[in-house]
Amino acid sequence: MKDIEFSKDQKDNMVHKVKRYFDDELDQDIGAFEAEFLIDFLAKELGPYFYNRGLQDAQQALNDKMEEANYLIHELEQPEGYL
Questions:
Q1: Contact 18, 38 (CB under 8 A)
Q2: What is the spatial distance between Cα 66 and Cα 70, in angstroms, rounded to a whole number?
Q3: Is position 83 within any domain?
Q4: Which pLDDT does position 1 carry in this prediction?
Q5: Structural contact between residues 35 and 82, judged by C-beta atoms closer than 8 angstroms
Q6: Which portions of the chain are predicted below pLDDT 50?
Q7: Which of 14, 17, 53, 62 is 20 to 30 Å from 72 at the Cα level?
Q8: What pLDDT shows up at residue 22?
Q9: Strands, DSSP E only, in the chain?
Q10: pLDDT of residue 82
């Protein structure tokens, strides 16, 4: 799996959310550098877990749709006459 990368706007938004979380929930003020470092760490160390879960969810959704399509195709079958 290649490294997870984010646009500058996405990264800035995440930094803002992490800083706000630390301030609101932990009553700690951290800088943008520290927040970005934490985001990079979490993306590298925990990102694969979330990524793999997303793949599993996508696979299940695809399997569900394929099962539904198989059922619909089966419903389209015409009875075959016997001689």
A1: yes
A2: 6
A3: no
A4: 64
A5: no
A6: none
A7: 53
A8: 97
A9: none
A10: 75
Distances (CA, A) of 23 to 12, 19, 32, 42, 68: 16, 6, 12, 19, 48
Q: How far is the C-alpha of 39 from the C-alpha of 33, rounded, in Å? A: 10
CA distances from 9 to 18, 29, 37, 55 (A): 14, 21, 16, 25
Residue 14 shares a structural domain with residue 40: yes
Domains of the chain: total:
2
pLDDT of residue 60: 98
Residue 17 identity (one-letter amino acid) = K
Task: State the Cα–Cα distance between residues 83 and 55, nearest whole angstrom.
Answer: 50
Full-model pTM: 0.72
The C-alpha angle with vertex 75 and arms to 69 and 81, in degrees rounded to 5, equals 140
How many residues appear in the chain?
Answer: 83
